[in-house]
Each structure stands twice: as structure tokens, then as C-alpha cells.
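User: Is it possible to get a 3D structure for a protein together with its bound compound? The compound here is EPZ. I've pasted both below.
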Amino acid sequence: MKDTLFIKGGKPLNGKVRVSGAKNAGLVIMAASIMAEGETILDNLPRIRDVEVMIQILNEIGAQTRWNEDNSLSIIVDPSKIKTRTSYELAKRLRASNLFLGAMLGCSGEAVISMPGGCDIGSRPMDLHIKGLQALGAQTQIEHGYIYACANTPGGARVYLDFPSVGATENIIMMAARTPGTSIIENAAKEPEIVDLANYLNSMGARIRGAGTDVIKVEGAQKLTAGRYAIIPDRIEAGTYMISAAITGGEVLVENVIPTHLHPIIAKLQETGARVEENDQGIVVKAGPYIRPVDIKTLPYPGFPTDMQSQMMALLCISQGSSIIVENVFENRFQIVDELKRMGAKIKVEGHTAVVEGVSKLCGARVKATDLRAGAALVLGALVADGETEIDNAIHIFRGYENLTDKLISLGAEVK
Ligand code: EPZ
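Assistant: Yes, that's possible. Here is the predicted structure of the complex:
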């Protein structure tokens, strides 16, 4: 039962909510921290399950960690004690464990990483990661579900990514940061989390230029020095709470955001008729008189984020017309459709396209979260549905949303 969320819908959400640190920046920066000897202190890291699992992996490979009084996390690294291997048991619980590949190759020249499992949103291969790391001199072999990699004579290189993969860009940046010579990554991912990783590594003495654009240049540094760094706010958590106001007919101030990171989400939300304003506290979202249907195509940043696709689908379920959603990033990210249909939604899926026909209302039902963002979208649907919704596998949601229940209750939702 502990993994089940019960939500009684029908109440407009009003008030203010503070966004936590970004999961997808924190996880990669935690992996990168093993590249510098000494104590790294990370501020604004969300206390979510994925961060807790990443802490277990850091401990397993020999780093010490400590949550401090001020809620920062200390990661103490003695390079002589770092084991360059992650176990299947822990890696299977967290795909981001694959980000140790680049960090370990960068600081130790070798790595044995358990292949991260696919999950409900797609097969999630690592071919682009491997191609980029091989260009920098890594030899790799995949056997028994592990990637064995070593780089005896690593050297800077030029890498062109067929697809601007976030993880591949991050792994290549981390290896390049400690690889002698100059590396250039073209068609790199431009997500804000990539910029945060580059800023963190540069604060430790790395020389990375161009993060946030599609060409990133890295001068390999001999040594990196541990220090203190604050993680950026989570733009996907922010977007999720912005939709919670629009879908329930309320008004919510979302605090602790970086507005530029939210522009693709703000633009789309305004198209649906919500009123969205930036002020010096954050972003205020006020629901419009009704929800207009809109079309959505997910794309790499700065396009509309795939991690917001399910949440927008929930909103469009009660719009005044038909919307077309095209998922261009993952090959299987419509798992939520069957669950929303149990709540009365009218959605048809053809390959990468979903057609959402707005209905007048959703009804509470027993549903299950298939992945983190689908779970978040079911929460949004439940907040506006008539009656009570029971969401099973809610553990998926707690992976990426810090204090979800408390934050929703503070906005007036009936959640337990
Ligand atoms: C990161 O995953 C995020 N996770 C995902 O967030 C996010 O959805 C995704 O980027 C896209 O923005 C973390 O940062 C921990 P990709 P990642 O490599 O790096 C294909 C969430 O909910 N691909 O950009 O795994 C891949 O199959 C999670 O917080 C290859 O084909 O995403 C996918 O179709 C979900 N070969 C597409 O690229 C490769 O070698 C995008 O994947 C790598 C990726």
C-alpha cells in the first residue's frame, strides 16, 4: 500500500510551490564528482529516490557521502579507493548509473558498467555513448550485460552525434574533461542539464566551452579540484506544477525557477489558454476559462521536452477539441494512454502519434504509474477527475518529485 497514492479530485489548486533541484542535473553531477579528489559539496540536490540510489552506487564504488545539516550533500573521493565498476543490482535500479562510464574513463582510464535496463519508454541503447568514447581512445566490449571499457592512450577527438543524446553528450564531456588534447562534440545535446554539468566541471578546473550550443569544445585538464556547487532548479518539476494550476482551474506561483529553461513549456501552456506570467518570485500560472486543444511535437531542447509530453496529454484530455501529440524522442512513450482511458479519456495512438479528443470530465479510477512522468501525469488527471483515483506503483513518481504529497496538499489538493 505504501506505493499507492490516493487523490480526491475536483478542487482548484491555489497558492505557491517551491521547485527543488533538477534530478537530471544532480544525477550526472554526482557521477562527475568522482573525477576530483577531495570533498565535493552539492547544494539544492533533491532528496528523491534516484538520488538515494546514486548515493548507494557512489558508496559501492568507494566514495564516501554525507548529508550535511544545511541539506547539502558531501561526496568525499580518494582516487586510490575508487573502484571502476558498478554492480548489476544497483545499476538496474537507475539508468543514470551509465553516466559513470565517462567519469571513470576520464579519471581512471577504465570502467566496467552494468548495461542499464531499458524501461517502459524505450530500449534506450548506448551506441552513441560507445561511439563517442571510442573516438577518444576507449576500447569497449559488451559481455554478460556489462560494458568493459579501457583507454590506454586516450586523446582528444572530434565526435559527431547522429542524435543529440543527453546521456551520450554527458559521458563524452566527462571523459574528454580529463583526456589530453582537444575534443569537439558536434550535434551535442543542448539541455540546461548539460550546461549545469559543464559549469560544475569548469568550477573544478575543466575547460569546456559551448555547452548549451550544438558544438562543445573540451580541453583535457590534468587534474580537477573538488569544490562546492549548487544544482539548477528542475524545469520538469516546475512544468508539472504549472500544469496542475491549468488543469484544476486554479492559480499557482511556481518559485525557484530559471524562466529561460521553461520557455518551450510556457509557450505551449499559453496556447491552451492558460495565463502565464513571470515575476521576480517565479512563474504565475492562472487557468483560462477553458482549455484549448493544441498540437505538440516533442524534440530535443529547446524544442518541447519529451519529459513533459505525458503531463500535457493529461491536460489535453479535458480540452475543448482534438489535439495531436507526436513523440519524436522515445519510441514508446505512450504507456500512459491506457491508464488515462480508464479515467474516461478519449485517445487514439498510431505509432509515434496520439490523437487526444477532449472530454468534459475525467472520472476517478484505479490506475498504475508505468514510468516517472506518466505517473506525474496520472496525478494531474486525478486532481481534476470526479471522485477518488488510486495510483499504484507511485514509487515511480517519488523517484523524481521531492515532497510531492506535501507540495500538493499545500496547494489545496486532497492527497494521501
Ligand atoms: C535523459 O535520458 C533524461 N534522463 C531523460 O529523463 C530524458 O527524457 C532524456 O534525456 C531526453 O531529454 C537523465 O538525464 C537521467 P537520450 P537519456 O540519450 O540521456 C536514443 C526523466 O523522466 N539514444 O537523450 O537516456 C534513445 O533511445 C528521464 O527524467 C540512442 O539511440 O536520453 C532515445 O530514443 C526519462 N542511442 C533518444 O536517443 C544512444 O546511445 C534520447 O535519448 C543514446 C540514446
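The mean pLDDT is 96. The pocket of EPZ is lined by residues 23-24, 27, 96, 122, 124-129, 163, 165-168, 189, 306-307, 329-331, 372-373, 400 (CB under 6 Å).
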